[in-house]
Design brief:
A seven-stranded mixed β-sheet has the order 12-13-17-18-16-15-14. Strands 6-7-8-9-11-10 form a six-stranded mixed β-sheet. Strands 2-1-3-4-5 form a five-stranded parallel β-sheet, with helices on both faces. The chain has helices at 6-14, 20-27, 43-55, 68-83, 104-110, 112-116, 131-139, 179-196, 212-221, 228-242, 247-255, 265-281, 285-293, 297-327, 351-362, 393-399, 423-439, 443-446, 457-460, 463-471, 526-531, and strands at residues 60-64, 89-91, 120-124, 143-147, 161-163, 333-335, 340-344, 366-373, 379-386, 406-409, 413-419, 453-454, 484-486, 490-497, 503-509, 514-519, 536-546, 549-560. It contains 21 helices and 18 strands. It starts with 5 loop residues before the first helix and ends with a strand. It folds into three domains: 34-309, Alpha-Beta Complex (inorganic pyrophosphatase (n-terminal core)), CATH 3.90.1640.30; 328-446, Diaminopimelate Epimerase, Chain A, domain 1, CATH 3.10.310; 453-560, Beta Barrel (OB fold (Dihydrolipoamide Acetyltransferase, E2P)), CATH 2.40.50.460.
Length: 561
């Protein structure tokens, strides 16, 4: 740690990471530092049931959520069981027609023959709030294991084996695993139990590190906090993605034009994650899982191309919805002092993305509702919410539960359904609870500067600094990507680019060198920036890929003129 650049030390110090031991642990996380799986409540019982099912040739069914976390967790288990020589079935509900969570009637209808013969159901990234559905399925003769990471429901846990780190008394409580992270530890426990009974005496023992690519994809995409455990999993997952032998993952990377190089959190957040998520948002999440479990590159290329088409459609729908909310012709945007509620005839599959964009613009907890008619002809509102650091949106919804038909999620993101008769009262209640939560935010969060460090662009774009900066990955909640401020840099060139001139391409001059820069969404500022004699640049470094070549460039976050 003696050669650590001073600027890196300052960044880590601001994150309360100091001392040789802590620096080493943060910059070089190791898998052997993971907590022992045996401390996860319910995991041993779940592994025992699964191994018994394998031994007795009992049908295993995985029911996963339709988002990136759920689909990657489902794909992880399908690939893992296949490597064990066990073919399992999986089901991803249609987001638009079926909604979130486990449906007892739908499951019994879809898997009637399997239930009649006594199947084992494993949920992934869902089920913790589906006590009634679990009861219905169990009473029909099917054993159930719920694996989830969402917060504990008010109405009590399902009456089955539950694996969820948020359970009281769980040794992983506070680790904030994603649903795919829980699925990974389930695979670890099953492999360990099978090893004890000699299952691998005649077959290869699976190398589970290859599945950490799924964990990285789901964890970053689901915006869960990057605790020490999640940092270890995601960091190793980046390595697994870079050299993945899983055909579907390799095809996904190739189609996104980021294969064969360094993987970053931004690659997942802005490229890989949205591609996987697009299928679920349009009601065809099974395409994403089919891709991630396919066994050859030819099929992978075909399915990856399908994802690309779904993603392009998703982008168009998002843009239309976002513009409609801001135009506000029908007064669908309700901006309170502490929260925002949006409602309209939107596509239900993309409202979460639109909520994120509104949060980015207004810096307030936001819920976007898609209005639809129920079977009785009345309106109801399906919503997706996103929050800001320090305001737990799920806790806010707990306070509004009297006006909500159904809800669930975690601190930064949640889904809910509100009946038309309760909608206005819900909006008022949500504003009140957002107000209380905002006032209770930590003082450090309230006074947090808009940047981490003031320095020259030259210092940040230095090769030695960038080498260690990469070691600070993964970036995300609880380890946000640093933003820097340079008050002295000057403009060498500046022009708007993109189909609608929405982005800004620049060359910036630091103290000693010129640096290529890009400002996403800043194209409208081109004339003002060129006309101003003095600018202050808020920026961060990012990797640019062009024709299979990686180079560092400056990403301008904002410009004060």
């Amino acid at each position: 740690m003696q050669n650590l650049p001073e600027l890196i030390r300052e960044l880590l110090s601001r994150r309360n990471i100091q001392g040789a031991g802590d620096l080493e642990k943060f910059l070089y996380p190791r898998l052997e530092s993971l907590p022992h799986p045996s401390s996860m409540k319910g995991l041993s019982s779940a592994a025992s049931k699964i191994c018994r099912a394998i031994e007795n040739d009992i049908e295993i069914i995985v029911w996963g959520d339709y988002d990136v976390d759920g689909t990657t967790g489902t794909a992880l288990l399908v690939n893992f069981f296949r490597e064990l020589g066990v073919e399992i079935q999986y089901y991803i509900p249609n987001r638009l027609a079926e909604g979130y969570g486990l449906s007892g009637p739908r499951f019994l209808e879809r898997f009637k023959n399997e239930v009649d013969s006594g199947a084992l159901l494993i949920t992934v990234d869902c089920g913790i709030s589906d006590r009634d559905a679990v009861g219905t399925i169990a009473s029909a003769g099917c054993e159930v294991i719920v694996t989830d990471h969402h917060q504990m429901p008010i109405g009590g846990l399902p009456d089955c084996v539950v694996v969820n780190p948020n359970q009281p008394g769980c040794g992983f409580n506070g680790e904030m695993l994603a649903g795919v992270g829980v699925a990974f530890f389930l695979a670890v426990a099953v492999r360990s139990r099978l090893s004890e009974v000699g299952y691998f005496s005649s077959r290869p023992r699976p190398n589970l590190k290859q599945y950490l690519g799924f964990v990285a994809l789901g964890t970053i995409s689901d915006l869960v906090e990057l605790t020490e455990t999640n940092r270890i999993l995601v960091k190793a997952g980046f390595e697994a993605l870079t050299d993945s032998s899983i055909p579907g993952i390799a095809s996904l990377l190739e189609n996104a034009e980021i294969s064969g190089g360094t993987i970053t959190s931004e690659d997942i957040s802005f490229s890989l994650g949205p591609r996987i998520n697009a299928a679920g948002r349009l009601g065809v999440a099974n395409v994403a899982v089919d891709l991630m479990v396919c066994d050859n590159m030819s099929v992978g290329a075909t399915l990856s191309s399908q994802l690309e088409k779904h993603n392009e459609k998703r982008k168009k729908l998002c843009e239309e919805c976002y513009n409609k909310t801001l135009d506000n012709d029908d007064r669908c945007l309700l901006i309170g002092k502490y929260s925002i509620v949006v409602s309209g005839d939107f596509h239900a599959g993309i409202i979460g993305i639109v909520a994120s964009r509104i949060v980015e613009k207004f810096k307030k907890p936001t819920i976007v509702f898609a209005r639809e008619r129920d079977p009785g002809g009345c309106f109801r509102y399906k919503g997706s919410g996103r929050s800001i650091p320090g305001v737990n949106i799920l806790n806010c919804l707990h306070g509004c539960s009297d006006a909500i038909s159904r809800y669930g999620g975690h601190g930064m993101a949640a889904g809910l359904t509100v009946e038309e008769t309760n909608f206005n009262s819900f909006a008022r209640m949500f504003e009140e609870h957002a107000k209380l939560a905002s006032k209770e935010r930590n003082l450090s969060e309230l006074i947090q500067a808009s940047h981490d460090v003031e320095c020259s662009i030259d210092d940040v774009m230095d090769d030695e600094f960038l080498k260690y900066f990469s070691l600070m990955e993964p970036f995300g909640p609880e380890n946000e990507k640093p933003v820097f401020l340079d008050r002295q840099a000057s403009i060498v060139s500046c022009k708007a680019i993109g189909s609608d001139n929405q982005h800004l391409q620049m060359v910036l001059r630091g103290k000693y060198a010129n640096h290529r820069a890009i400002g996403f969404g800043l194209g409208g500022m081109a004339a003002d920036i060129r006309a101003s004699r003095k600018q202050e640049f808020y920026f961060t470094p990012m990797i640019n890929r062009f024709r299979n070549k990686e180079t560092w460039q400056v990403r301008v976050i904002s410009v004060s003129v």
